[in-house]
Amino acid sequence: MPLQIGDNCPIFSLENQDGKTINITDFIGQKILVIYFYPKDDTSGCTKEACSFRDSHEAFKDLGCEVFGISSDSVSSHLKFAKKNRLTFNLLADTKQEVRNEFGVPRSLFGLISGRVTYIIDLKGEIRGIYNSLTDTEGHITKALDLVKTL
């Protein structure tokens, strides 16, 4: 069952593009979190989304926010994708899709494509916003930024 607004953020640890283990508990209570799930590194929609998050990263940081992108791609794929697009935030490798399943991120197109969902999590670890759209890649950034400004 997908997580809903008001639910607590699942606790997880994943490796980032540099092979460093990121424990989400190190951030809950310290920063507002924007966690976005995306289908695949280096595809047109995912590149557009990641670059939009990159271009807005300073605005998120200024609001006390930490951004994480999560897909089932490997650490090495994330590193290549991050370097190629000069990404300034952590990409987390959920190769077994365990975290995606904990959040209940749906699959699209008859289950063939991993969904694109963004979660905004407050300082208490509570989900305050969810934006789900496979095609509106830039909407994820504007909706998240608008909500973060109110927290």
Topology:
Elements: E1 13-16, E2 21-23, E3 32-37, H1 44-55, H2 57-62, E4 65-71, H3 75-84, E5 90-93, H4 98-103, E6 107-108, E7 113-114, E8 117-121, E9 127-132, H5 137-148
Outline:
By secondary structure, the protein is α+β, with helices and mostly antiparallel strands. It contains five helices and nine strands, in the order βββααβαβαββββα. The protein has one domain: Glutaredoxin.
Comma- or semicolon-separated keywords:
alpha+beta; globular; 151 residues; Glutaredoxin; seven-stranded mixed beta sheet; 26% strand
**Total helix count?**
5
Largest sheet: 7 strands, mixed
Question: What is the CATH first-level class name?
Answer: Alpha Beta
N-to-C CA distance: 26 Å
- Order the strands across the largest sheet as they lie in space: 2-1-5-4-3-8-9
Question: Helix amount, in percent?
Answer: 25-40%
CATH fold field value: Glutaredoxin
Poorly predicted ranges (pLDDT <50, ≥5 residues)?
none
Give the topology string: H per helix, E per strand: EEEHHEHEHEEEEH
Tell me the strand percentage band. 25-35%
Globally, the shape reads: globular
* Nearest-integer average pLDDT: 90
How many structurally independent domains? 1
Rg (CA only): 14 Å
So, CATH architecture? 3-Layer(aba) Sandwich
CATH superfamily: Glutaredoxin
Count of distinct strands: 9
Structural class: alpha+beta
Could you walk me through the main structural features you see in this protein, from its secondary elements to its overall organization?
The strands form 2 sheets. The protein has a 7-stranded mixed β-sheet with strand order 2-1-5-4-3-8-9. Helix 1 packs parallel to helix 5. A hairpin with a 5-residue loop joins strand 8 and strand 9. It is 30% helix and 26% strand. The chain is built from 5 helices and 9 strands. It starts with 12 loop residues before the first strand and ends with a helix. The protein is α+β, with helices and mostly antiparallel strands. The chain has a single domain, classed as Glutaredoxin (3-Layer(aba) Sandwich), CATH 3.40.30.10.
